């Protein structure tokens, strides 16, 4: 009798399910306004975001678990796993790619912004634990950083950033 179930066939399927991003409910860019804890936020337009660069405080957050049993979903409906490198921002269009530079040690990392936050005054970006480790501030929890948009959107909606504008005097 033939074996219908093989662990060797099951493992790749399980890996695919655990690493898939679970497609979001958006087309193009997510720029709709929203309210959290009584605070209203109006995301930047795509044109404004294409020139975005800002300095401020970065923090890290952990919405994941190994098997995805915790919340783990972003504002775009994507899964966040411990090995992902991604971020949350209050007003950038979702999704976008940013370059985050730790100003205390000079380390930089490109990452996808696919969530909203941080909702704590004075912080401009939240990154995943792996991103915080790579940027060298996981043990401290916070760091001074610079965030610069590289692109907005995915696939046919992707637009590359324009240079020459800053929200911070350099």
Question: Would you write up a description of this structure?
Answer:
- A hairpin with a 5-residue loop joins strand 5 and strand 6.
- 14% of the residues lie in helices and 29% in strands.
- The protein has helices at 7-19, 46-49, 129-135; strands at residues 34-36, 39-41, 53-60, 86-88, 96-102, 108-115, 123-127, 142-152, 159-160.
- The chain has one domain (7-160): Beta Barrel (Barwin-like endoglucanases), CATH 2.40.40.10.
- With 170 residues, the protein is an alpha+beta fold.
- The model is unreliable at 8-25 (pLDDT under 50).
Helix and strand topology:
Elements: H1 7-19, E1 34-36, E2 39-41, H2 46-49, E3 53-60, E4 86-88, E5 96-102, E6 108-115, E7 123-127, H3 129-135, E8 142-152, E9 159-160
Parallel strand pairs: 3-7, 4-6
Antiparallel strand pairs: 1-2, 3-8, 4-7, 5-6, 5-8, 8-9
Signal peptide: 1-23
EC number: 4.2.2.-
Pfam family, one: DPBB_1
Major sheet characteristics: 6 strands, mixed, barrel
Distance between the termini: 72 Å
CATH architecture tag: Beta Barrel
Percent of residues in beta strands: 25-35%
What fold name stands as the CATH topology? Barwin-like endoglucanases
Residue-averaged pLDDT? 81
* Count of DSSP-assigned helices: 3
Shape: globular
| E-strand count | 9
CATH class call: Mainly Beta
- Any idea what the radius of gyration is? 18 Å
| Helix percentage | 10-25%
CATH superfamily heading: RlpA-like domain
What's the SSE pattern?
HEEHEEEEEHEE
Strand order of the largest sheet: 3-7-4-6-5-8
Specify the structural class.
alpha+beta
Count of domains: 1
Poorly predicted parts:
8-25
Function: Lytic transglycosylase with a strong preference for naked glycan strands that lack stem peptides.
Main location: membrane
Enzyme class: lyase
Signal peptide: 1-23
């Amino acid at each position: 009798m033939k074996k219908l179930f093989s662990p060797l066939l099951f493992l790749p399927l399980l890996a695919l399910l655990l690493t898939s991003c679970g497609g979001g409910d958006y087309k193009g860019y997510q720029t709709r306004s929203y309210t959290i804890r009584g605070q209203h936020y109006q995301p930047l337009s795509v044109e404004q975001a294409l020139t975005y660069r800002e300095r401020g405080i970065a923090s890290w957050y952990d919405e994941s678990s190994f098997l995805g049993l915790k919340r783990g979903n972003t504002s775009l409906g994507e899964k966040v796993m411990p090995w992902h490198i991604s971020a949350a921002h209050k007003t950038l269009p979702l999704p976008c790619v940013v370059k985050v530079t730790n100003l205390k040690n000079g380390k930089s990392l490109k990452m996808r912004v696919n969530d909203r936050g941080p909702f704590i005054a004075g912080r401009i970006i939240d990154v995943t634990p792996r991103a915080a480790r790579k940027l060298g501030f996981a043990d401290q929890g916070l760091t001074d950083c610079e965030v610069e948009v590289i692109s907005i959107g995915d696939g046919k909606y992707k637009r590359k950033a324009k240079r020459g504008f800053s929200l911070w005097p350099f």
